[in-house]
Amino acid sequence: MNKRELVLERIEWLLALAEQFVKKNPERTKRYVFLARKLSSRYRVGIPKRFKKRICKICNTIWIPGYNVKIRLNKRLKAVEYVCACGSLRRFGYSKKRD
Ligand SMILES: [Zn+2]
What we know:
This protein is α+β, with helices and mostly antiparallel strands. The chain has one domain (about 5-99): Immunoglobulin FC, subunit C (Single alpha-helices involved in coiled-coils or other helix-helix interfaces), CATH 1.20.5.420. It has three helices and three strands. The chain has helices at about 5-20, 25-40, 50, and strands at about 70-75, 80-85, 90-95. β2 and β3 (about 90-95) form a beta hairpin. The longest helix is centred in the first third of the chain and has 18 residues, at about 5-20. It is globular. The chain starts with a helix and ends in a 6-residue tail after the last strand. The site of zinc ion has 7 residues, from loops.
């Protein structure tokens, strides 16, 4: 196993743990996400797909729909908007094809 795989595995593990603590211990979640993101940038390993669009870059939390994030559609911009509990906004565009 090379270093890259090892780091990726650790990131996965940290984020899975982070996900478990969102409701029980938000501070712990933030710590885990922070560490995962730090590893990701230091070793240039991407955040796994299933977490990529579920992380707040401002407060380092994992979003649980209906709990700490509001999701709405912006039809004019053709984007899904995620409004985090910390007030930050992230947009992800959606394509016409999928309609
Ligand atoms: Zn946030």
